[in-house]
Design brief:
CATH class: Mainly Beta
CATH architecture: 6 Propeller
Helix content: 10-25%
Oligomer: single chain
Radius of gyration: 23 Å
Number of strands: 39
Strand content: 35-45%
Number of domains: 1
Distance between the termini: 51 Å
Shape: globular
Largest sheet: 6 strands, mixed
Strand order of the largest sheet: 4-28-27-26-25-19
Number of helices: 7
Length: 596
């Protein structure tokens, strides 16, 4: 062996040892340094469908935007409730909006994909859902009703769907639905009653009219809340709290998002260490055809200070859609990134199988965007994925489950967790199923993934959250021909076998057959809201169910629940048993540090 070969061998050995040490630490993780990210990249699981090398983002355009001035509003003072104007029903009746919204494929293509999904073969790799509670799964704490169609929308009670999202701080919860939000304390008491986004942005030019697709976030590092919403398909309106108290003064901004023309849709935002990131899809207005996907970085430091805030925009090539910027968690636990890029998950080639991770470094400086890797969730789970099909419900009629785009990108302890809806066949025919995955963002490889389903039951619009101990819970709507649309939760303790979830539990039962003015299959939504508490332990879900509001159509309600995992684990482990004895013994109790 030559000296060069020996040195190479030693270097590889040192990197592997360092990587194992980094990944093996279960508590009090330090900030994610560049060295740690490299260690993660060196330990990509084999056979996970990842693409280890970084590739350029096809030299797609960079668009710089001049800083925009902000204004403020004090939510602690009495405010007039400013309605959005015409109800969604009025606009729909006049043909001014399309409840189908802009689709990534045509109606005919959707129908063909759904027909193909009905022919899926059964898969033995699907985890068949069991009813809980499970021994090591999440348990429900405080829970309460949240916004519903009859109370929320300032005279626009005909709004469907709600698209609920949730943010949680040390003392406050903000629930948001299309065109309105409400603020609670952690016991569920209302601190700010339902308030329209039109009220929040009153006086901000370009932030009135049709406001839809809400975002709500909590920045753990800055101790601030963020509310964002699409304005008329041409702007993103953002408000940030001046302090940790959201029932106080907010700074408000409007950023133009269609400077190159087209209709801006489906914004999703994530808190970064140096910016607020947001991704969305662009459509050609005349044909409603897909134009491209884009991601923006907004100067959050300037917005927090109430100063003029700049932004920068990147355009993806046409193989990518629905970018989901990672939403950072873990500041109080020492797991907040100290350096490095911000990660973005995209759907790739719109096939229900392939997704990608991009790394955006220094958006206001060097501004480099690279694809770290593409991962295949069909390969990772072993479950063929079909286009989501329409969902039956008790009493007849059906609901739309949309498509298989990613619903979130939660960053915790150096990994990204994401979920989406697919069609699958658990053995008794095709149903809609929730799929989840843990991704190494350094190289876009799958750490673990799974698909949850059961015969005759449909699960859709899954969203997940992860605590500091890497316990994960996923929430979703569940419906069937024998039940009304209800809110359910499943989860996994970090100590249980990879790729598996504990039994599911019901958060809120559906109450009535859901109808809306658009006809069957009815629009049910685009996403739901799950987030982690900054305490590193609790996770909170804002789910959607069919509620008996007395309304003739659009009978939706939302419900909030707090979930925790056991503070100690005593898991059974197989062991060779003596004759007549048990085949299991119990491992010693594992105390769980920050999660206790």
């Amino acid at each position: 062996m030559t000296l060069r070969q020996l040195l190479g061998f030693v270097l590889v050995f040192v990197l592997l040892v360092a990587g194992v040490w980094f990944l093996g630490r279960s508590e009090r993780l330090g900030p994610d340094s560049v060295a740690r990210q490299r260690a993660l990249g060196a330990l990509a699981p084999a056979g996970s469908g990842g693409q280890a090398e970084s590739v350029a983002a096809d030299n797609e355009p960079v668009i710089w935007h001049e800083p925009v001035e902000g204004s403020s509003i004090d939510l602690s003072q009495p405010l007039p409730d400013v309605p959005p104007g015409d109800t969604q029903y009025d606009l729909w009746m006049r043909g001014e909006i399309d409840l189908e919204q802009e689709s990534l494929v045509s109606e005919a293509e959707v129908a063909a994909l759904q027909e193909e999904a009905l022919l899926l073969e059964p898969s033995a790799n699907i985890q068949i859902a069991q009813e809980g509670p499970g021994l090591f799964g999440p348990s429900l704490g405080v829970s309460f009703d949240s916004l519903n169609i009859s109370e929320c929308c300032g005279g626009a009670g005909a709004t469907v769907p709600p698209d609920p999202e949730l943010a949680v701080g040390p003392s406050h919860i903000i629930a948001a639905v299309n065109i309105a939000f409400e603020i609670y304390n952690k016991s569920g008491a209302t601190l700010l009653p339902q308030t329209t986004f039109t009220t929040l942005f009153a006086g901000v030019p370009g932030c009135s009219g049709q406001l839809f697709d809400p975002n709500v976030l909590y920045d753990e590092q800055a101790d601030r809340f963020i509310l964002g919403i699409d304005s008329n398909g041409n702007s993103y309106c953002v408000a940030v709290s001046q302090t940790s108290n959201p029932v106080g003064v907010w700074n408000r901004y409007r950023f133009v998002t269609n400077s190159a023309g087209g209709f801006f849709d489906y914004p999703h935002a994530g808190v970064g260490r140096n910016a607020l990131y947001m991704g969305g899809n662009m459509f050609v207005c005349s044909t409603c055809g897909f134009k491209d996907a884009r991601v923006w970085a907004f100067d959050k430091v300037a917005m927090y200070a109430g100063l003029a805030a700049g932004s920068v925009e990147r355009v993806f090539n046409l193989s990518e859609d629905t970018p989901q910027p990672a939403n950072l968690h873990g500041f109080a636990q020492g797991a907040w990134p100290a350096s490095g890029p911000h990660y973005i998950v995209t759907e790739t080639n719109f096939n229900g199988a392939t997704y990608s991770v991009f790394a955006w470094n220094d958006p206001f400086g060097a501004n480099t965007l690279v694809k770290n890797g593409t991962f295949n969730l069909v390969t990772a789970t072993g479950v063929p994925a079909g286009f989501p099909i329409n969902v039956p419900q008790s009493g007849g009629g059906s609901l739309q489950a949309n498509d298989f785009r990613p619903h979130d990108a939660e960053y915790r302890n150096g990994f990204i967790w994401t979920a989406n809806t697919i069609a699958c066949n658990p053995g008794g025919g095709t149903v809609d199923c929730v799929r989840w995955a843990q991704i190494n963002p350094v190289n876009g490889t799958v750490v673990q993934a799974g698909v949850l389903a059961s015969n005759g039951q449909y699960r859709f619009f899954g969203n997940l959250a992860v605590n500091h101990c890497n316990d994960m819970a996923i929430g979703y709507t569940k419906s069937s021909s024998g039940m009304f649309p209800a809110v359910f939760i499943a989860g996994r303790n970090a100590e249980q076998p990879l790729n598996t979830l504990s039994p599911e539990i019901q958060l809120k039962a559906g109450e009535v057959n859901y109808t809306a003015f658009d006809g069957s299959p009815h629009r049910w939504g685009d996403y739901t809201g799950f987030t982690s508490d900054p305490n590193g332990q609790d996770i909170w879900y804002l789910g959607q169910y069919s509620k008996n509001t007395g309304s003739g159509f659009g009978r939706w309600g939302t419900y909030i629940g707090r979930f925790t995992f056991p503070d100690s684990i005593q898991a059974p482990a197989p062991q060779q048993a003596p004759a007549g004895g048990s085949s299991f013994v119990y491992l010693p109790i594992i105390k769980r540090g920050i999660c206790s």
